[in-house]
Amino acid sequence: MEYEIESRPSYALLSLALDGGESIRAEAGAMVSYDDGIEVETNASGGILGSLKRSVLGGESFFQNTFTATEPGELSLAPALSGDVVHHELDGTLYVQSGSYLASDPEIELDTEFGGGRTFFGGEGLFLLRLDGTGPAFLSSYGAIRERELDDGERFTVDTGHIVAFEESASFDVKRVGGLKSTLFSGEGLVCTFTGPGRVWLQTRSPDAFLSWLIPNLPSSSDTN
User: Fold this and answer.
1) Which pTM value belongs to this model?
2) Over the stretch 111-159, which tens digit does the pLDDT of each residue have?
3) How far apart are CA 76 and CA 3, in angstroms?
4) DSSP 8-state code for residue 222
5) Of 112, 182, 213, 221, which is least packed with CB atoms within 10 Å of its CB?
6) Which stretches does DSSP call E strand in the chain?
7) Which helix (H) or strand (E) holds 56?
């Protein structure tokens, strides 16, 4: 399988060249186009209970599409939001925030894991999507994606709304920005401090910050009277 990511970082498009017999699993609604000879199968990955857990708790689609090439052909995928796409060759476990999973090898297991009291109490919720296995995975974002590799013991702090994914080897802790006043009035809220070794992927824009700006500026019914 070969891939190309075009139009980065604002409106990324993932193009996959599939050989005969190769497959890729993608989020529902991610498909843009595909050649003749590529078949689509829609199913509840992980069974009904697994899909329900991933949909309700992890914010992902209940159904997913598996694209299989009966002969060589090209498939293109794109995320829902205007932003970036990156490839990660998975060999182990990766944690992904809600909405940032785009596609992966069908053999990679997807599950939703409770983050406990340390997790992202902001817009990211109490649950994270967990990817386990070996093979290609593609992540998406709102805005551009930046990768940061942490050395052993190195610390790196990210606003919770800007986290895309992180490797299992990187430990993390969620805390407030400064004291209560800073948390309430700085506009930052909660942050996540990662400790290496491991890689962290972050997005340059936050959907929550955009909604906080957008909603107060939407016209109300009284504005049209």
Assistant:
1) 0.81
2) 887 554 444 544 444 568 899 999 999 999 999 999 999 999 999 999 9
3) 9
4) G
5) 221
6) 2-6, 13-18, 23-27, 31-34, 38-43, 64-69, 73-77, 85-96, 101-104, 109-114, 127-140, 145-150, 155-159, 163-167, 171-176, 190-195, 198-203
7) helix 47-58
